[in-house]
Specification:
The complex is a heterodimer of chains A (100) and B (319). Helices cover 37% and strands 20% of the residues of chain A. In chain A, a hairpin with a 2-residue loop joins strand 2 and strand 3. Chain A has 100 residues and is of the alpha+beta class. In chain A, 29% of the residues are buried. Chain B has 9 helices and 18 strands. In chain B, strands 8, 9, 10, 11, 12, 16, 17 and 18 form an 8-stranded mixed beta sheet that branches. A 7-stranded mixed beta sheet of chain B has the order 1-7-6-5-3-2-4, covered by helices on one side. A 3-stranded antiparallel beta sheet of chain B has the order 13-15-14. Chain B is globular, with a radius of gyration of 20 Å. The termini of chain B are far apart. Classes of the chains: A alpha+beta (100), B alpha+beta (319). The interface between A and B is medium-sized, with 16 and 15 residues.
């Protein structure tokens, strides 16, 4: 995997290309052919991963999650950053800036 | 007694060329019997009558006259060590030495084990999962999991309640149809369950128990000795239950997210790495058409009741 587990402020993560995803009851399993491993994403992790298209930074993803799950953005900010770091660490998102 | 069993070839880890080969081709006089156990064709060659007879007692009705093309060859040879003067039994699969065991009662379980290794390596058509699998009213119920979770014992007990049998070791999933195919090997039961299953009226094989390495004493149950119609026809997987044995705890089932079940299934697949993305989608299709649960199992009778109630609930369309 890629090592450091932080998403720099302003960075707009993008899903790693080539992964296969199956959505099952609002959750997802993602197959990463590059590493021949499968990841299990719960509802919120999948919600974030699905929106990692290079157009949103962590703050925007936090707002989107807060809106969708009707929670306070401040409350979930740390969880979002932790989840994005986890997705990056497991090679499911690229940490390069998106082009949006 | 200390058991001497040497595992020569763990799943998928043996480098090509490093295996001991069976240098002694089976002599012409050697007894060779051919079997077709579900999709598994094999020839057992041995001059050791106690091995040939013990295997035949389990699998007589699967015996066939001619070997099928591509059948696995299992050879069992007795050799004496000139250094220790001890007799050892060598178990080979397609000429490759898999096990060397000391005790005659260890031979049959290691023949079974060698067959399992051969299936895992050389039956690539099926996506294979480590699971015991049964069915009720034509709908498959799979219990995937690591050893020691009571999968075989639970499958055996469910047979006494009219369920049918696919396997206590392999879920063989046909990638074309997504259906289960039976590998109706004899159920391998550990010592802790002997008395319990005899109280259920199950016909454990007679005579002294066999010895299966670290698993200790085991006995076998042939599914057709339970009921002539005990072996299931190919069918769909409708319920997936991950068992976890917790003695003394009231048995219970809890729903499990399908995505998590899919993730767990890949961990118990023997050959997922050969299927890759195709296997991922195949397993996703399987869990999509099934209900998934975790089972805390305890008292066997209560566990059967809980499982049966859960499965009836699913088949009743209320889950």
């Amino acid at each position: 995997m890629d090592g450091a587990a932080t998403i720099p402020a302003g960075m707009r993560p993008r899903q790693r290309e080539g992964c296969a995803c199956r959505v099952l009851d609002d959750e997802a399993a993602v197959y990463d052919p590059a590493h021949d491993v499968i990841h299990y994403l719960n509802r919120t992790a999948y919600f974030l991963w699905e929106r990692c298209d290079g157009s949103r930074d962590a703050a925007m993803l936090t707002d989107a999650l807060a809106d969708a799950f009707d929670v306070d953005a401040v409350t979930v900010r740390d969880d979002v950053e932790e989840t994005l770091a986890m997705l990056a660490e497991n090679g499911l998102i690229d940490r390069e800036n998106g082009k949006a | 007694m200390t058991q001497a069993a040497v595992l020569r070839a763990p799943f998928e880890t043996l480098a090509p060329g490093c295996a001991n080969r069976c240098r002694e081709a089976a002599p012409e006089s050697c007894a060779a019997r051919h079997y077709a156990i579900g999709p598994v064709d094999l020839t057992l060659r041995t001059e050791l009558r106690f091995v040939a007879d013990a295997f035949r007692r389990q699998y007589a009705e699967y015996e066939v006259r001619m070997p099928a093309p591509g059948a696995f060859h299992i050879d069992v040879i007795r050799r004496r060590s000139w250094r220790s003067l001890r007799t050892w039994y060598h178990v080979y699969g397609n000429g490759e030495e898999h096990f060397v065991v000391r005790h005659p009662r260890s031979v049959l379980p290691h023949v079974e084990w060698a067959i399992n290794l051969m299936i895992a390596r050389h039956l690539p058509w099926y996506l294979q999962l480590h699971a015991s699998v049964v069915s009720k009213e034509g709908r498959g119920v799979m219990f995937p999991g690591s050893p020691g979770q009571g999968k075989s014992t639970l499958a055996a007990a469910l047979l006494t309640r009219g369920w049918q049998y696919y396997s206590d070791e392999f879920a063989l999933i046909d990638p074309q149809t997504r259906e289960l195919n039976a590998y109706p090997k004899a159920l391998c039961i550990k010592k802790g369950s002997f008395d319990l299953l005899e109280r259920f009226g199950l016909p454990l094989d007679a005579g002294p128990a066999h010895l299966k390495g670290l698993k200790g004493p085991v006995r076998f149950i042939h599914p057709r000795a339970v009921r002539p119609d005990a072996v299931a026809e190919p069918g769909p997987i409708r319920v997936i239950i991950f068992p976890h044995q917790s003695p003394g705890v009231e048995p219970a089932v809890q729903p499990m997210p399908r995505a998590q079940a899919l993730f767990e299934l890949t961990k118990v697949s023997f050959n997922f790495s050969k299927f890759k993305a195709r296997g991922f989608h195949l397993l996703a299709d399987v869990v999509e058409q099934a209900q998934c649960y975790r089972l805390i199992s305890g008292d066997l009778n209560r566990t059967c009741e809980v499982v049966e109630s859960c499965v009836d609930h699913v088949f009743g369309g209320r889950a």
